[in-house]
Structure formats: structure tokens, C-alpha cells
């Protein structure tokens, strides 16, 4: 009962003296180098997928920095925004003038009506101002 028996063909967890614990199908060749059982084509194909993934990430990063909507185009957008804000201010000023004219016409202001009649009949020049004294 105290004796242990070994089963034929079973591997022990302790490596044999010449094997030194190599796993995964690798074996020692001449000169102590580890040889792989995988062919070179298989290694190249397994490295291709991560390489393509890294290249895709680099391309997207390049577009994020250098593209037409990228980070480096931000300065151009800021200049365009400043120009658009100046244009908006001019349009708002023009809108205020037109609203004032609309209000004068709606009120039936006689001075403004006289100015319009004289301007449309060429009795006043473009750079003249009409002053009405009552």
C-alpha cells in the first residue's frame, strides 16, 4: 500500500533532464536555439492584422491633425468666424436702419414722406440731408 505505481505513457510535471520545460511545440535544435513549428508564412499573416490596425489608427490620427476639419485647421475656422461676426454686425446695423424706416412709414411721418418724395424725384442729391424746420 505504501508503494506508488507509475502509469505508462503519463508525463510528470517535472521536466526531464534534457528538456528544460519547453512548451507549445517548440523544440531545441542544434546549438541550443529554439525552433518554431509554425511556417514563416503563418508568422507573416499573423503579424499583418495588427500592422494593418496600427496603420489605420495612424491614418485616422493624421486626418484628425492635418485634415480639412483637423486640429491644424482650427486657426482658419477662427478667422472665418471673426469675418462672419463682422458681417453679422453690419447686417444687424442695416436691419436696424430698415426697421426705423418701416416704423417712420407706418406712422405716416410727414418729414420722412417729404424726404422720400424729393429723393425719388431727383430733387435731392444722394449726399445731401434734408432738414425740415417747422
Question: Could you walk me through the main structural features you see in this protein, from its secondary elements to its overall organization?
Answer:
There is one protein chain. The protein has 134 residues and is mainly alpha-helical. The chain has a domain at 84-125. It contains three helices and two strands; from the N terminus they run E-E-H-H-H. The chain has helices at residues 40-66, 74-107, 110-120, and strands spanning 27-28, 34-35. The longest helix has 34 residues, at 74-107. The model has no long low-confidence stretch (mean pLDDT 78).
> What proportion of the residues form beta strands (DSSP E)?
under 5%
Task: Report, as a whole number of angstroms, the end-to-end distance.
Answer: 136 Å
Alpha-beta content class: mainly alpha
**Major pleated sheet:** 2 strands, antiparallel
Helix content: 40-55%
How many DSSP E strands? 2
Q: What is the overall silhouette?
A: rod-shaped
Integer average pLDDT:
78
Specify the number of helices: 3
Whole-number radius of gyration?
45 Å
Low-confidence runs of at least 5 consecutive residues? none
Q: Strands of the biggest beta sheet: in what spatial order?
A: 1-2
Order of helices and strands: EEHHH
Quick structural overview:
By secondary structure, this protein is an all-alpha fold.
Can you give keywords for this protein?
mainly alpha; 3% strand; two-stranded antiparallel sheet; 134 residues
Amino acid at each position: 500500500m505504501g508503494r506508488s505505481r507509475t502509469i505508462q505513457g503519463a508525463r510528470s510535471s517535472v521536466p526531464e533532464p534534457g528538456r528544460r520545460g519547453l512548451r507549445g511545440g517548440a523544440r531545441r535544435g542544434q546549438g541550443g536555439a529554439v525552433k518554431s513549428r509554425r511556417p514563416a508564412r503563418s508568422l507573416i499573416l499573423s503579424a499583418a492584422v495588427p500592422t494593418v490596425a496600427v496603420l489605420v489608427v495612424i491614418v485616422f490620427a493624421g486626418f484628425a491633425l492635418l485634415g480639412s476639419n483637423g486640429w491644424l485647421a482650427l486657426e482658419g475656422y477662427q478667422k472665418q468666424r471673426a469675418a462672419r461676426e463682422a458681417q453679422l454686425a453690419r447686417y444687424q446695423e442695416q436691419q436696424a436702419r430698415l426697421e426705423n424706416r418701416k416704423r417712420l412709414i407706418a406712422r405716416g411721418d410727414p418729414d420722412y414722406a417729404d424726404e422720400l418724395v424729393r429723393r425719388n424725384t431727383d430733387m435731392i442729391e444722394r449726399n445731401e440731408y434734408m432738414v425740415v424746420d417747422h
